[in-house]
Write a structure and sequence with these properties.
single chain, 155 residues, alpha+beta, Beta-Lactamase, 25% strand, globular
Length: 155
């Protein structure tokens, strides 16, 4: 059996291109370590500058957004104080907000912050702002008084 020239050309040129494209895609996504670091930076900013300045900076500022990583700041009752991924959610109560599968993920995140103080949520499905597709996501959260700050990462 004889292999065609185009097959060999693909192996020589195409496969490395696909590998590098996969590496580039992975580099465009935040990692769990980067999400946790950004959340800790946001908590420190909140403590140093107060809730109003922090909410404005988390939602509108560039220093708390990195690729698909952004800060969410919410009260335990579900009131969104800041959202770097979707500013239209600020001021809304998301206590009963469900993911793409109907999971009450917001309650799950609140529970993690309340009971553990900080840590990773269970996975849920949410719109990725980079790809505009629903993807699996986990969120690192830290409790701050009667609220939480979180940064999610897409799997």
């Amino acid at each position: 059996m004889q292999m065609g020239k185009s097959f060999w050309n693909f192996l020589i040129a195409g496969v490395p291109a696909l590998i590098f494209a996969g590496i580039a895609l992975a580099a465009d996504q935040g990692t769990p370590a980067e999400a946790e670091s950004l959340a800790k930076k946001a908590v420190a900013f909140l403590k140093a500058n107060g809730p109003e300045a922090a909410a404005a900076e988390f939602t509108n500022g560039k220093s708390f957004k990195d690729r698909d990583l952004y800060v969410v700041y919410e009260k335990f009752d579900g009131t969104m104080l800041a959202n770097g991924g979707n500013p239209k959610l600020v001021g809304k109560n998301l206590a009963e907000f469900k993911d793409a599968d109907g999971k009450l993920f917001n309650k799950m995140i609140v529970e993690t912050a309340k009971t553990k103080g900080k840590g990773w949520s269970e996975s849920y499905k949410f719109m990725n702002p980079m790809t505009q597709k629903i993807g699996e996501k986990i969120m690192y959260v830290e409790r701050v008084d009667d609220a939480w700050i979180g940064v999610g990462v897409y799997k």
